[in-house]
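User: Sequence recovery, please. Input:
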């Protein structure tokens, strides 16, 4: 019998470059990975996700994008109406609750990291992606499964960097997992980078969850403020059920990782 097959959809948040300042928009960075069984993805999640979009945004619905939805921009202008937004949030939360997926969120306070590791000369983006790949490996191993990774195209420079990073992990291993152990769990030697216009449901799910994961981690580990009520509700669901976690049920260090 073939091993179960999964896909991890990744999205970055904050400033993933290595430069740092005390400004919050530069100081913090994160990667979120949303892991879904390919069988479930193709046969159940994608059809249901499309129906959800059609219900709220009409035939030929737009590609979901959290920032535009929060601001009710473009084809999401209907969300300016409080009743319309409440209906969307109700059904969206039901989707988050019922869908079968596992979340890995890796975040870093770059100022604190550099202070704790003054002689470190690696790249922040490499560390974030590498930590996410390592947790994905442990997830796949615990499920006796294999899997690939997909990201949305952003710009040629960052896409090229991501491709090179993934290839380096596949060929040479990560900081903590040698390639001889990693390769058998990765079903592709290359990361899949797809343009937004491909309208991929898993990438949209990662986009919808990334900001909430990032804000949730900052709140837990730095004492940051509460955020909007709907996102707080989603964060509570992720914390209770959706983060990858230890056998005892603890997400800290498993599906919720904070560096340093």
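Assistant: Recovered sequence (260 residues):
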């Amino acid at each position: 019998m073939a091993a179960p097959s999964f896909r991890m959809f990744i999205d970055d948040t904050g400033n993933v470059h290595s430069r740092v300042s005390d400004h919050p928009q530069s100081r913090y960075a994160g990667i979120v990975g949303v892991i879904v069984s390919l069988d479930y993805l193709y046969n159940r999640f994608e059809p249901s996700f499309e129906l959800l979009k059609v219900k709220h945004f009409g035939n030929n619905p737009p590609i979901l994008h959290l920032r535009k939805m929060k601001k009710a921009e473009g084809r999401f202008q209907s969300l300016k109406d409080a009743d319309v937004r409440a209906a969307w949030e109700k059904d969206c939360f039901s989707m988050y609750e019922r869908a079968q997926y596992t979340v890995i969120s890796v975040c870093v306070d770059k100022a604190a990291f550099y202070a704790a590791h003054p002689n470190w000369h690696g790249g922040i983006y490499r560390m974030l992606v590498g930590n996410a790949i390592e947790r994905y490996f442990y997830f796949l191993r615990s499920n006796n499964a294999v899997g690939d990774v997909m990201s949305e195209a952003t710009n040629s420079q960052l896409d090229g960097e991501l491709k090179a990073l993934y290839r380096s992990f596949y060929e040479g291993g990560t900081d903590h997992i040698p390639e001889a152990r990693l390769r058998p769990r990765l079903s592709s030697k290359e990361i899949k980078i797809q343009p937004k216009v491909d309208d991929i449901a898993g990438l949209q799910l990662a986009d919808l969850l990334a900001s909430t994961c990032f804000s949730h981690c900052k709140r837990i580990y730095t004492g940051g403020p509460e955020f909007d009520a709907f996102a707080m509700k989603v964060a509570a669901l992720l914390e209770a059920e959706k983060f990858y976690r230890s056998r005892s049920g603890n997400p800290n260090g498993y599906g919720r990782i904070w560096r340093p």
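The CA atoms of residues 63 and 210 lie 16 Å apart.
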